[in-house]
Amino acid sequence: MILFTYDFPHKKTLDFIFYCSHYGYNIEAVIAAPKVKLTIPNQKYKAGVNLNVGVIPTPEICKVLDIPYLIAPHNSQACLDILKKMKPELGLIAGARILSGKVIDCFSKGIINFHPGPIPEARGLDTAQWIIYDDLPLAVTSHLIDTRVDGGWIIKKLKMKKDPNDSLQDVGVRLYLGQLEIFKETIEKVFSGAPLTRVPSNAKASYKYFPPQFEEVMMGRLNDIH
């Protein structure tokens, strides 16, 4: 198994390495993409919590567990050369941008992504905010990716009840933990060869960053749940 991530301390990566170790899944290599600067709207209300503070750097974990830690942009020729040499079965995304078809085709079973939202209803970015704003189900989805944003083949979807006591950050954390809850079942299902449902080509368009001008309406709708 190849783990895709970012080249900086990253909580989701740490969790995925631990879960793989705990359940007996061998990570053949970690491929970490260099950090890039993103243009993100200045949002007043954030669903995310900074979980990367105090996280053990990934190279240190990999050294202890004897996992090769390789730095390369995920869609680069350097990454393709690594993958073609390793001929991996399965990929796992802890952190990545949209991967190219050439990268995906290097994996005989595909590449798994865990998405903090229901697919296809809430593909894309800032799903916690969009779920509240558009009154969508609170859910997480694992899927084998294709070259679309949160497209591909659905492996597992976990729906959760909306809690009247949840803050926006509570929703964000629950969506994160939900991904870990379906981790083992997702990988088992892929290795079993069970049939999967493809995300339709005419599925609802993926979300972009949540616009700051929608935030007060979104928070009002969150309060209505209360």
Please specify the SSE layout and strand pairing:
Blueprint: E1 2-6, H1 11-23, E2 29-33, H2 58-65, E3 69-71, H3 77-86, E4 90-93, H4 101-104, E5 110-115, H5 127-133, E6 138-144, E7 153-160, H6 168-181, H7 183-192, E8 197-198, H8 215-225
Parallel strand pairs: 1-2, 1-4, 2-3, 4-5
Antiparallel strand pairs: 5-6, 6-7, 7-8
Helix pairs in contact: 5-8
Describe this structure in words.
- There is one protein chain.
- The protein has 226 residues and is of the alpha/beta class.
- It contains eight helices and eight strands, in the order βαβαβαβαβαββααβα.
- Helix 5 (127-133) crosses helix 8 (215-225).
- It is globular, with a radius of gyration of 18 Å.
- The longest helix has 14 residues, at 168-181.
- The mean pLDDT is 95.
- Helices cover 34% and strands 18% of the residues.
- It has helices at 11-23, 58-65, 77-86, 101-104, 127-133, 168-181, 183-192, 215-225, and strands at 2-6, 29-33, 69-71, 90-93, 110-115, 138-144, 153-160, 197-198.
- An eight-stranded mixed sheet has the order 3-2-1-4-5-6-7-8.
The largest sheet, given as strand count, sense and whether it forms a barrel, is: 8 strands, mixed
Strand content: 15-25%
Derived structural class: alpha/beta
Morphology call: globular
Q: Strand sequence of the main sheet, in spatial order?
A: 3-2-1-4-5-6-7-8
The number of distinct helices, counting runs of at least 4 residues, comes to 8
Radius of gyration: 18 Å
Total number of beta strands: 8
| Rounded mean pLDDT score | 95
Write the element-wise H/E pattern from the N-terminal end onward: EHEHEHEHEHEEHHEH
> Uncertain spans, ≥5 residues at pLDDT below 50?
none
Instruction: State the distance separating the first and last CA atoms.
Output: 43 Å
What percentage of residues falls in helices of 4 or more residues? 25-40%
